[in-house]
Amino acid sequence: MTSLAKERADADRQPKVTLRTIAQHLGLTPGTVSAALNNSAAANSIPKRTKERILAAARELNYRPNYFARSLRLQRTYTIGVIAEEIGDAYGALVISGIEEYLRRNDFFFLTVIHRHDQKLLQTYAQMLLTRGVEGFITTDTSIVEKLPLPTVAVAGHKRVQGVTNITLDHTLAARLALTHLLELGHREIAFLKGHPASSDSAARWAAIRVVASELRICIRPELTVQIDSIVSTPHLGYPFAMELLSRKQPFTALFAYNDLSAIGAIWAFREAGLRVPEDVSVIGFDDIPAAAFTNPRLTTVRQPLQRMGQIAAKRVIDQIEGNAEWVAEIAIEPEFVVRDSTGPAQSSFIKP
Fold first, then answer.
1. Its pTM surpasses 0.70
2. What does the pLDDT average to over 311-339?
3. Helix, strand, or coil here: 159?
């Protein structure tokens, strides 16, 4: 018998720890123990010290709750429906990682579906999750246009819908941090890669960039602005659009890309054209995905705390389900600006008009 099999066999022979086991250990009733461990309404009448004793005993005795029995008893599933645009991309993966970490710590499960910006698919999946008994929804990079029948939190949601809490980044601050950095380095001819229109952040981010650029007296020139029309989740997102920008033969010394993937793709395009980053052209990304710190050169970017945003979303939806929080329309998150190696002082434009 292998050591793993032996451990499992030994575990199977151990007497099962139940609510009654903990109750007898502490001299309490099983109902009191159940209320404390499930944090039900009845737990409000249990003294704090007693709750702490119950939780400590559950850990000491290695109590493993029977979630199926609990669901039947309380007529709950302890399951959240997560509706994401993509799982494999770095953005979605970080948000979902934060969601999973918080839900796991609080004994909730989640089911994930992928909508790929298809509104019909989004509605179909929402109904499918409802039939599977989810108690709330968390969406990522998803434009919710109508109220869902359960507590709902949207990461990067921007449309005001009754009952939906939007977790949003302060895009105005993000734009100000990035554009001020370029101005301080002497850049005046700045190019932009705009996000795909289906991306939830695209319109809000571009609107913020336009407002801040006007305040800072930066001219946004149409010939230096390229619209991304792809939703691929690789650096190819930026490569062809940076090549299009170069083909216009318009002078610029810096590029502010929609996100890190498009920024990395743009760097590839610039290198193929014989340009150095940042000596010839500076590049700024957005998100601070893990690859940003390891690309060459390391990418200067606006950091979204994506994992923390996922955790906040999970906490908010559970609090609403449990009745521990009132609905709020929006939770704003502040960005950080991370200066690395892809930006430097402006030189003479590499393209002569």
1. yes
2. 93
3. coil
Residue type at position 272: E
Second-level CATH architecture of 3-74 = Orthogonal Bundle (1.10)
Instruction: Give yes or no for a contact between 140 and 95, defined as CB atoms under 8 angstroms apart.
Output: yes
Decide whether 3-74 matches 171-304 in CATH topology: no
Question: 171-304 — its CATH code?
Answer: 3.40.50.2300
pLDDT digits (tens, 9 = 90+) for 281-292: 999 999 999 999
Homologous superfamily of 79-169+306-332: Response regulator (3.40.50.2300)
Distance CA 332, CA 291 (A): 25
- State how far the Cα of 93 lies from the Cα of 124, in Å rounded to an integer: 23
- The domain segmentation of the chain, as residue ranges, is 3-74, 79-169+306-332, 171-304
Long-range (24+ apart) CB contacts under 8 A made by 215-223 are 215/176, 216/176, 216/179, 216/180, 216/183, 218/179, 218/183, 218/188, 218/190, 220/190, 220/192, 221/250, 223/248, 223/250
Taking the mean position of all CA atoms in its chain, how far away is CA 206?
Answer: 19
Burial-class residue 250 by CB neighbours within 10 Å (0-12, 13-18, 19+). middle
Contact 178, 163 (CB under 8 A): no
What does R_g of the chain's alpha carbons equal in angstroms?
25
Q: Which among 203, 218, 228 has a CA at the least distance from the CA of 253?
A: 218
